[in-house]
Amino acid sequence: MISIPKKTEKKSKHAASHIHASIKKTSKKDKKIAAAPKKSKDSIVQDQNSDTILDTYDFYSERIPLTVTIIKKHGEFVPTYSLQISAISKTTELILEKVRLELIRRVSLGTEDIGDIKKTDLVEDKFNELIGILIDKYFPDSDYDTVNFLRSYLKINSLGLGNIELLMSDETLEELVINQASEPAWVYHKKYGWLRTNVYLKNEEQTKHYASIIGRKVGRQITVLTPLLDAHLGTGDRVNATLSPVSTNGNTITIRKFSKDPWTITKFIKTKTIAPEAAALIWTAIQYELSALIAGGTASGKTSALNVFANFFPPNQRIISIEDTREIVLPKFLHWVPLNTTLPNAEGKGEINMGDLLVNSLRMRPDRILVGEVRRKRETETLFEAIHTGHSVYATFHANSAKETVERLTNAPLDVPSIMLPAISLVIVQFRNRRTGKRRTFQIAEIMPGGEANVIMQYDIKKDVLVQVSKSKALYDNISLFTGMSDSEISKELEDKVKVLNYLVDKNIADVDGVGRIVAEYYTNKDGLMKYVNGKKDFPLASQLTLEVPKENPSQPTKEVQASASKSDKKEDKKEENKKEDAKKEDKKDSKENKDIKTEIKTISAQTTESPKPEAKNDAHAKSESHEKEKHEKHPEKSHTTPLNKKDTSKEKAKPRFSFPLLHLKK
Ligand SMILES: Nc1ncnc2c1ncn2[C@@H]1O[C@H](COP(=O)(O)OP(=O)(O)OP(=O)(O)O)[C@@H](O)[C@H]1O
Ligand SMILES: [Mg+2]
Fold it and tell me: Could you say which of 300, 405, 473, 602 is the most buried, measured as most Cβ atoms within 10 Å of its Cβ?
């Protein structure tokens, strides 16, 4: 009999035993460590000759409770990430393996079937049906949580990526890699960097099998003839796989995890990635439609920074984002069209690359274009063309400093003429400290009329602060050229923005939608917002919104709205036919139509606030919403937001204005 700790329980006290042949047995010594009482962060075991527990925490992979212990073993250079399934005995593990084999035999799952996308639903249905029967047979009288645990466990070990999938559920991991089956999997931990794990794959065949499952999920194959696979999963995770002999030591899998909790300016300021003053400068440049490049080294946080700064876009502009993998998450009320590249199929056809999308985006009447990464000559040329034709463009670029950005752009193979460079007003450089792993904004530079970079702010690595190193020459000029503002007016704007940014931090408004709403408020009702900011009062956010019939047709009607539109079209026709009918009848019909539309909008709003969405972006939104909802349920008095369709009558009088596509404020 096994017992599954409830989600609310902090941790199982039992030393977790290893659960699968491929999670390597913990040695007696390790077990001793695992069983040792948990140390607080301040009282880390300090004995020079013994192993040190650096950290320990629990998380769930679906319904599977897991415990991680990060151990610095004596004499080893790299700490070990030890993953264990809490509360499962060796006997249970053996029975589970037996059940798994019976399951595979009875569902007659071949390796082909498991990976075949067309058969996925069929296999899953068969699997779910049978699993209930087998759990009843082998684990009668199991409680609800146990049954759920067994289901998850059997599912990931039969149809999924086994222990790799367990690792993928750890939110503190950025990357996980398999170098070869005879070596443990490695993970890149947000706090501890690269760690060796206790997770092994059985053999090279299993690595290949997992790579095939991933490949078929995205409709691609990995074979001896096509031994390289690049896949962007629906969850947003980015996967690369290589087969031996291309990778000489064995088959490899590299997974870059999609962060389900998108970065925002609040989190950037809180983690000291950027100072409010620097963020205010970037915000002002973005507000007045100046283009910017976000530069940095590999994994320095370029894309995260692009996402953070894109939250400064005004709500009434059309945004097109172009990426290889869907990483960018913007507030849901923005006017945003995300585009993604596609890889060629097995015959090498059907590729749509960044350059194609960039050219296409220019025909979509964008105000702002976000480009995941510019690498090639064609993309760079189109990027400059886009800026010269009046668009504001924001892209990430691989370079370690503002100077290097200019050098890389102006030399082969990109060869952008220096004269064109000032089209980019700002270069923001992100940086990862190679010793501490901390990510920071390293430089904020403006591009001068001659094409050279003038660094305005520079990160002081010793003091861990971003300091102003020179006065802006071109940036203020550009802003006043496009806005007519004087230097002192610009400085006042910067001060106000610093206040708003500090307010976001003080009030812990840290999710994408919350930050987006405050920014939208800044643009649409600055005086109203500043009253809250200066008075340090809680901003009511969504609780201020009430629904009203939109005065104009929404620009991107949903199915429901279209249905409603065609309904009201028909009604309009009828109205035409009966034009001469008496006024009383007319009035009656009008009021019914208004009621219909109101109901439609309520339905749409309920869907926006309640229904979970399958896509990665929506997952993240759903998560932040459900988090807010949970928070609100637990501490209604502390919560900043209430569901859109719930009216907070207590604060109704001070209603600010937003102009969302479907939602209008009652005056
Ligand atoms: N300010 C930050 N503090 C801590 N972690 C961060 C910060 N910014 C980004 N990260 C994390 O660093 C990792 C890499 O970030 P990101 O993908 O933005 O980098 P990148 O420079 O775009 O990488 P690549 O070169 O692969 O495109 C992510 O896991 C992200 O969550
Ligand atoms: Mg990136």
Answer: 405
